[in-house]
Amino acid sequence: MISSQARSIPFFDYPHLFLSEQQELTAIFRDVGMRGAFILQEDLVRFERNLAAYLGVKYALGVGNASDGLLLALRAAGIGQGDEVICSHTMVATAAAIHFAGGTPVPVECGDDHLIDPEAVEKAVTPRTRAILPTQLNGRTADMEALEVIAKGHNLVIIEDAAQTLGSRFQGRAAGSFGVAGAISFFPAKTLGCLGDGGAVVTDDDDIYERVLQLRDHGRGSDGEIVSWGLNSRLDNLQAAILDFRLASYDLAVERRRTLAGLYRNRLQSIRQVELPPGPADDSDHFDVFQNYEIEAERRDELRAFLKTHQIGTALPWGGKAVHQWRRLGFETRLPFTERVFERVLLLPLNLSLTQDDVHHICNLIENFYRRSC
Ligand SMILES: *Cc1c(COP(=O)(O)O)cnc(C)c1O
Predict the structure, then answer these.
(1) By Cβ atoms counted within 10 A, which residue in 118, 133, 260, 263 is the most buried?
(2) Which residues are near ligand 1 (CB < 6 Å)?
């Protein structure tokens, strides 16, 4: 037993991603390597089929990463020059995908749940608006019912950034399955992580599927003829084989995350200086996969430094800024509510290397921090 004083808990334990399943993964490397099956091979096709079935969508297509996935989805949906796309605070990748598709990202306020605020979306619609791009955040899906009403009313498409939300649901429907397309990330620290970069575009739409299929592979049609301009953004077959293996036990991984999130909630809910996300069973409309455990905390920076001296890793979302605060990208919007949230948010460790003891240890420290100082 490690004494609780000496315990060091990184925000994310990257070696664990390999070491926890070293034998199985090594067997996959060997199998794929012996077959020389590196690009667009049967392991990818199998993973795509299983992923689509898991989400209840018609198609899943492996791509290089979710950032590319968003770009490909936007291009496939016809977003281009002069089109405005409404988003909320998100990773810069989301806005960059809109930018490189030729469009203009229009960030709007988030709500109390930190997800895109449908009322703010409605207010931001202009004659140039073509799409809404909600970022499904920290494993939770936005109020898609309200967004679908707005999209219908203004003839907009919805494209979901579901990079953080594989398996998350709103009213029983999976994140990624609401709009014309959604993008999912398999970056190592995501809920379903591979050993490098990886992503998927999911869709029910035959045309979007065909276009993403071409866009990710140099514009090649099924007969190998070049039928359109394309890029190279394919999910490596080796990563697909790893992901297919991990997808088989993904529901258990989600349950672990939900248990740990519930434990955080039980332990922290009596501390008045912190605000917590809803618990795993608090709201029947939402099924959260808890990509992150995001709290709001008074004296956030001091708390973060205190945890660091006790060797607890934490993180600030997107490096500490909402996307519109990266002024050098040309944003001029002010979003006072979102900016206030960003002075208070803190991500606590939540991943599969974490034990229940680890969570108790982190919560003890947070309790000590506020007790010492009130
Ligand atoms: C991780 C993430 C991305 C980017 O995913 P990559 O696969 O690393 O390109 C985009 N949007 C959100 C919300 C993310 O969390």
Answers:
(1) 133
(2) 65-67, 90-91, 93-94, 135, 161, 163-164, 185, 187, 199
